Amino acid sequence: MSPTDLEQDAGQPVPTPSGSTSTTDGTRELLFEGDEGLLPAEVRNTLARLLSTRFIDGVRNPAWWSRVQRHEDVLRSRLNDVYLELVVDRRREVAFTQQVELDQEVPVLLRKEKPLPLPAAILLLHLRQEYDRGAVEGRDVVVDHADLLDHLEVWKNVDDQNPATFRKRCEAAITLVREKGILVLLTPLRYRISGVIYALLTAEKVDAMTAAFEEMASAGQSPEPAAAREENA
Questions:
Q1: Angle at Cα 135 formed by Cα 98 and Cα 210, nearest 5°?
Q2: pLDDT at site 180
Q3: Which of 211, 177, 225, 172 is nearest to 197 (CA)?
């Protein structure tokens, strides 16, 4: 590329190899008073998005997905600075962050795992299984609200709650999963399962949860809290 290919009008921002933004007169682009940042606004916004939500669903948010791909190297570098990894799954169009596991003790930026309510844990496992079936067939997976309630209904006796209370807990579980971006609303009572579920529930977690639920079903008891954990998004 010749120098003329990089020419822009005087005063316009020109991205530098380090990912910082400068103008043709050598000054940096300031986004607010006292700004000492080196990244362009678009990169900063994408980085902040990854840090605040942890997941970007490219099907649901194609603009954010494009930004992740466009600035992948600098995003990965800045996340590594705070002991986080950037995982980009192009086939599923999902980007997410995860904590780097080190032998030495380092500050942990991502919130630690916490137990999920039983209906939410059951629902997550069901959605992961449905998503896997759709992936094998090469299709998006669409689920109905009523079908999700029906799937949870079979666990009512195991949960040992009266029907009205358990129904409320099931509705709350669906709301929780929607808020995490796993269920994407298509119509008021139909959802698409986002590829985020693949990142949220690793194969190891699926195996552990499946074993716990099978044991619970056979014994008619609730699972231990550790068996129904997920990473807080």
A1: 65
A2: 82
A3: 177
